[in-house]
Structure formats: C-alpha cells, structure tokens
Amino acid sequence: MRAAIAAAALGLPFVVLALVVRARLAAVQPFDESVIRAATDLTRAQPGLRGALLVWQECFRAGWVNLAVTGLCVWAWRRHGLRTRAVWAFVTLMVAWGLQLVAKQLVQRARPVVEDAVAHAPGYSFPSGHAANTAAACAVVTVLVWPLLGPRGRLAAAAGAAVVVLVTAADRVLLGVHYPSDVVAGVLLGVAVTGASYAGYVGTTPRVAPSDTAPSDTAPSDTAPSDTAHAADAADASDATHPARGG
C-alpha cells in the first residue's frame, strides 16, 4: 500500500507531462523549441563545450551506467553484507530503465529538428532515457551507500548525485537531442520509480524478516529507529565476513 501511494503521488507529475506532450498542447512546444534553438546556438559557438558534452553523453549511456551500478551492488553485498539494499538497488534501476523504454513507445514524440545539428540520436524523444536512467541510478546508489557514510559523506553523496543528474539533463538539451520537457520527464520518472520502490522496500522489509533486527551494538550504522530498512541490512551485515561500519 505504501508503495502504491508513493507511486501515485510521485508518478502523477510525469503522467500529466506525458499527456500534455502527447496532446501537443501549445503551452509546451513553443517553449521547448525556443530553448532548443538557444541551447544549440550556444553549443555550436563553443567547440570545447560540444566535445565535453559528447564525452559526457557517452559516459552516461544506460549500458555503462547500469554496469557500474551493478558492480557497486555486488561490492556492497559481498564486501559490506548489504544484500537487501543491493538487490533493491539493482531491481529498481532495471525497472526504471524498462519503464522509460515503454514510455517512449507510448508517447512517440519525434526528436527535435535542429538546423546544423550538433549531435544526432535515434529513437523517440520523450522521456529522455539518459535523464531517467541517470536519475534512478544516482538515487539508488545514494540509498545503497547511505549506511556506509558519515554525515559529511551523506551530504557529499546527495549533492554529487544532484549535480550528475542536472549536468546530464543539460547535456541532452545543449546537444539538441531532447527538448527540455523530455529531460524533466526523465528525471521525474527516475525519481518516481525510485521513491515508490523505496517506500515498498521500507514497508515490507520488517515483515520479510521480523526476527532479523540486529541489536544496536551489532551494527550501529544500520539500525536507526527512523529507518526500518536498516534493520534488514544490519542482519545482512552481521552475516557477512566484513560487516558494514557507519561513520
């Protein structure tokens, strides 16, 4: 129930934007096209910027991002015993990646048409796959490593994730391969999937393993009363050769 409520609340902005774009309402298209023209003019005038944007685009393709997150999940599981978090992070990212592909087929928005284009991309435009996948990846990674970080580390992780998502969103518009509404929708989708999934993860974890709640002296970083999901991770960590340590 908790996951369903979160999905409805977090997914509503994405659904509304998808319907607006699908209906080609005049309120969105002129704005999108004016931003694309200004953004691509800026990129063409700065060859160094174009090169940096293309490198960022390649580095944050879904294949590379998903591979990196998968490796991090394996590391968190094997090294720190965060089995439930690792499985949750991997599954959530795959769901977000799959849903953006489905959304593209449902909306079927054509890519921006730019004179003297600075980059080309295949497939449909809405939502931005780069934005959706990167937003979901950054969110699940932040949640995955949260118990392993101290206060400063957590702040740095959250800030770093936000910067990566914003730069990826800007990259798509500056290269002229996505409208602004595409990247906004991508971020909304990635955040909605992660938020709904995490709500379900927190809500179901105690019922899945009610006897696995570790005492606070076993894994102090994973048993905070305010985060019920930490209880399962504490049990995972206590079974691992190298338990997680907070700091």
From TrEMBL:
This is Phosphatidic acid phosphatase type 2/haloperoxidase domain-containing protein. It comes from the Bacteria. The keyword Membrane applies. The chain crosses the membrane at residues 86-103, 131-149, 156-177, 183-201. Residues 221-247 have a biased composition (Low complexity). Residues 206-247 are annotated as: Disordered. Keywords: Membrane, Transmembrane, Transmembrane helix. Residues 87-198 form the Phosphatidic acid phosphatase type 2/haloperoxidase domain. It comes from Cellulomonas aerilata. Gene3D superfamilies: Phosphatidic acid phosphatase type 2/haloperoxidase (1.20.144.10).
